[in-house]
Amino acid sequence: MTIDNDFRPHTESGPRRTIDKVVEALRARDLEALRQLYTTDVVSFDVEPPLVHAGIAAKLENWAKVFQFFATVDYEIRDLTFTVDGNVAFGHAFARLHGTLHNGEAAQGMWVRVTYGMRRTGDTWLIAHDQVSVPFDITTGKGVVDLEP
Fold first, then answer.
1. Which CATH number does the domain housing residue 107 bear?
2. pLDDT category of residue 2 using cuts at 50, 70 and 90
3. How far apart are CA 122 and CA 144, in angstroms?
């Protein structure tokens, strides 16, 4: 019997492949492809209000806003790391959403911290939770958005 290394309990390849597909779907501006990468009950703590975006419709609404804002989209991930055990995985990385605005102006975006919680169903890894954050200056209470990894 041959074991597919991509689905051994402690491998990062499955969750990493899902994040790669998120990047591809964002660059393609493809909401339906994104829908396939999240659980229907995904909980997202994104950088914009409200405090919680619950369910796939709310998550896709956030991505739809990105597509309304940008004419072209790029999404960059750095230092992605996962810990995998059986059918669950959690990971963290730095991410930057940037691209070209509809007026042709380049928007460099900002680096954020992102945390992923994933569940595996069969051979598919889906994002069940994500949290995006920026550090803040405790003396001013404002986000610090000019840091780079």
1. 3.10.450.50
2. very low
3. 40
